[in-house]
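Q: Here's a chain of 483 amino acids. Please give me its 3D structure as tokens.
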Amino acid sequence: MSSAAPLVRGYEVVIGLETHAQLSTQSKIFSGASTAFGAAPNTQACAVDLALPGTLPVMNRAAVDRAIRLGLAVGAKIAPLSIFARKNYFYPDLPKGYQISQYEIPVVQGGSVSFLLGDQPRTVRLTRAHLEEDAGKSLHEDYHGQSGIDLNRAGTPLLEIVTEPDMRSATEAVEYAKALHALVMWLGICDGNMQEGSFRCDANVSVRKPGAPFGTRREIKNLNSFRFMQQAIEFEVNWQIDQIEDGLAIEQATVLFNPDTGETRAMRSKEDAHDYRYFPDPDLPPLVIAPEWIERVKATLPELPAAMAARFQGTDGLPAYDAAMMTQSLGLARYYEAARDLCQAPKLVANWLMGEVAKRLNAEGRDIEACPVPAATLAALIGRIQDGTVSHNAARQVFEALWSGEGREVDALIEAKGLKQMNDSGALEKIIDEVVAANAKSVEEYRAGKDKAFNALVGQVMKASRGKANPAQVNDLLKKKLG
């Protein structure tokens, strides 16, 4: 939970998130219909998804496996017995007139997610994670003023992950969401594709004066990008403060965010649980999860991010921040390990991944899996820095060429661009002699105790060598020359 929460215009912000993660099963939660994305409308909705007379839902075991995986990863309790309920409401894309969900006894209870906010550790408590089915989708474009209903998503398995109201800023909410997003992909339970709706968040936002009871919350629905989440929460916070400062009461409501205007707007008054008339689904027996089932799932879990980060600190000697950054995603961790094993330089690899590689990936909106410079190639480049073949500046030029596709071989690019570092001490001494002779004033100032004069002489040597001299070697030889 956050401490020393920042205030916005004298108010404390209180945020809780509800995240819908689409589970990576091939079929739906209660039927054998496909969950593949992109099919023609209404081609993947079967009779069970529509609750046609005579059909009965059957629980998808793979969906339960994935819920257990998350529960184990976040340190939650896995309920030995949980109940499915009918959540009753009418909406055109809900053909049953109800949604099968969990209410009183969810499958995953408690747990927490930890992450970094800047360089400060944060932990957000989880209330629960429950299994449920998705609804269909209403389509309002390209229908000549009418709306269409696509029921392909109806029955798609979701895990709804609900936090306690522990977050105190839009930035903290986004960092939590990113950490959860990385975790569900790390575990292989969700593909994390926000554009396709596989991972989407609802933000419950309220404000209060420090020490006051919680304010009335408004729920921002279906945030499918981290940038939109940041914008939506910040707008909503300021809107609520404006209302309160004007003497108006905040009414509980469900709101939508318009990315074109950057504003939230009320969609409907917010329902409470009793409005949905929850009751146990008569067609589904209680879900019983025996200890043996949990143990089988536990045996399949990958090494978790926190454990891997601790290993990187212990065996590789990485600082805590670097280790946390290297475990932001499983793909990044695997890339780091591959490059580290080849060049045996953990800190240098981490520096490059947090620096040049991250900068270019972020600029182009790519993930590490789409990095055009393979781990082996980066390791080879770092190896040439280690053995003195190139300077750090020259290595960045080589990396630029590798990224843009000028070549694939590190050594060939170094030769072609003439970036090989000058390590010949005889040749360097000759250049140093010339620089010392031509800069008598700087020499005199250095001998009088002015360190800046020494740096000026080093700069002249590097300039005379066209940047190819080994800086460390230049420093040593110049100090010997100057006594």
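Q: Can you summarize the key feature?
A: Residues 7-296 form one domain.
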